[in-house]
């Protein structure tokens, strides 16, 4: 029996949901499978503020630097990898996790990379012995860019035996920020459809994993090469348009004070602990936002916005709400048709 750990970060719940699907398939195979949420495992603000992996566009947004100087987001990550020395906070992990045969690390794709907090955490890991196999997994909106290469490099650097990558686009949760409406039922139905696809892909991936441990390994490729090819022009456009679009139109942090009920949900939801209060007690965002969208999505009165362009747009309610909506709709239909 394999002993597996799934370690993940999730901004709006999709990666958490995906983790549960992977766990289900693992358990069906008779593997033991623990899951661990990065946010429950460690205090993110401390992790982040101690040694931030600079999201260069975030810093640019704060300082309004010209694009020409920084042609590619996350430029500083490469140098961070070079001097990744491990964090004393996590030094016992090499021993604590030696009971696992396989560890999966999952995160949403943010700007063609793993979420910055996951990057920070991986860089902070101690060195592992080569016996533990690892794989990466991701949820995204269709363009993973360098995510897999990034995970492979960093996990290999930390001493793991990298086995492969698993990913799934579900619904366009990030695009909720720029859309006017977000149809819960439609999105929920899409989530269910994509879940079937996800389960099938996980099953195939686990066949491959199983063969690594118990049989003759066979060649496996999770990422779609066509999607990778399409990703190249998308990435180029993204990198050059990044200042213009992100900084001028999408991101920032604003609040309609008259609508804020001072519930502090945003403050509690921010995984980075970035939201502080101004002199009047209203929330304001601090440095190093990773745009996980939680403060916006979870604000009960829609008082927050990233920019005037994204003000009053749809909000992503999280996979649980979407699945409940579909369930409720099914129930309503049954009642209407007199089947209940
Ligand atoms: C700041 C930010 C950047 C993103 N960048 C990408 C991207 O480059 N490519 C992509 O396909 N999806 C991107 N997405 C979409 C997320 O990867 C997707 O919504 C993911 O499923 C969210 O997972 P979570 O709910 O676990 O946070 C981005 C989302 C955010 C919030
Ligand atoms: S300020 Fe909002 S978007 Fe930024 S990290 Fe915190 S919760 Fe996420
Ligand atoms: S979640 Fe919304 S209403 Fe609550 S404190 Fe934050 S901005 Fe105000």
Question: Can you tell me about this structure?
Answer:
The protein is α/β, with parallel strands linked by helices. The chain has a domain at 3-238: Rossmann fold (3-Layer(aba) Sandwich), CATH 3.40.50. 44% of the residues lie in helices and 15% in strands. It is built from 13 helices and 10 strands. The protein has helices spanning 14-28, 38-41, 44-50, 56-63, 75-82, 93-96, 116-124, 147-157, 184-214, 225-250, 265-269, 294-298, 319-336; strands spanning 3-8, 32-37, 102-110, 113-114, 133-140, 161-169, 254-255, 275-277, 283-285, 304-305. Strands 1, 2, 3, 4, 5 and 6 form a 6-stranded mixed beta sheet that branches. It has a two-stranded antiparallel sheet with strand order 7-10. α1 crosses α9 (184-214), α4 (56-63) packs parallel to α10 and α9 (184-214) packs across α13 (319-336). The relative contact order is 0.14. The model is unreliable at 59-76 (pLDDT under 50). The structure holds flavin mononucleotide and iron/sulfur cluster (2 copies). One iron/sulfur cluster is lined by residues 255, 260-266, 283, 299-301, 303-304.
Task: Quote the distance from N terminus to C terminus.
Answer: 44 Å
Instruction: Determine the strand fraction and express it as a percent band.
Output: 5-15%
CATH architecture of the domain at 3-238: 3-Layer(aba) Sandwich
Bound molecules: flavin mononucleotide, iron/sulfur cluster
In CATH's first tier, which class of the domain at 3-238 applies? Answer: Alpha Beta
Instruction: Find the count of extended strands (DSSP E, 2+ residues).
Output: 10
CATH 4th-level superfamily of the domain at 3-238: Flavodoxin domain
């Amino acid at each position: 029996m394999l002993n597996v750990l799934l370690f993940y970060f999730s901004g709006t719940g999709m990666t958490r949901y995906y983790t549960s699907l992977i766990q289900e398939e693992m358990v069906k195979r008779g593997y033991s499978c623990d899951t661990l949420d990065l946010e429950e495992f460690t205090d993110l603000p401390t992790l982040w503020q101690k040694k931030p992996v600079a999201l260069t566009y975030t810093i640019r947004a704060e300082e309004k630097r010209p694009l020409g100087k920084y042609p590619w987001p996350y430029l500083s990550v490469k140098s961070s990898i070079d001097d990744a020395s491990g964090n004393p906070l996590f030094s016992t992990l090499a021993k604590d996790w030696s009971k696992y045969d396989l560890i999966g690390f999952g995160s949403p794709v943010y700007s063609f990379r793993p979420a910055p907090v996951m990057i920070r955490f991986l860089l902070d890991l101690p060195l592992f012995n080569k016996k533990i196999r690892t794989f990466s997994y991701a949820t995204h909106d269709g363009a993973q860019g360098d995510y897999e290469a990034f995970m492979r490099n960093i996990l290999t650097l930390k001493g793991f035996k990298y086995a492969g990558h698993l990913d799934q686009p579900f619904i366009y949760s990030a695009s909720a920020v720029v859309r006017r409406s977000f149809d819960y039922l439609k999105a929920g139905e899409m989530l269910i459809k994509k879940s079937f696809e996800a389960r099938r892909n996980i099953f195939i991936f686990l066949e491959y994993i199983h063969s690594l441990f118990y049989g003759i390994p066979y060649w496996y490729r999770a990422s779609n090469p066509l999607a990778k090819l399409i990703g190249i022009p998308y990435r180029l456009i993204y990198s050059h348009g990044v200042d213009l679009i992100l900084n001028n139109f999408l991101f920032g942090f604003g609040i309609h004070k008259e609508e804020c009920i001072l519930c502090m949900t945003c403050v509690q939801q921010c995984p980075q602990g970035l939201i502080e209060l101004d002199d009047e007690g209203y929330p304001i965002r601090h440095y190093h936002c990773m745009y996980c969208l939680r403060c916006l999505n979870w604000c009960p009165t829609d008082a927050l916005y990233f920019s005037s362009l994204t003000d009053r747009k749809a909000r992503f309610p999280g996979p649980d709400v979407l699945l409940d909506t579909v369930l409720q709709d099914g129930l309503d239909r049954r009642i209407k048709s007199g089947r209940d």
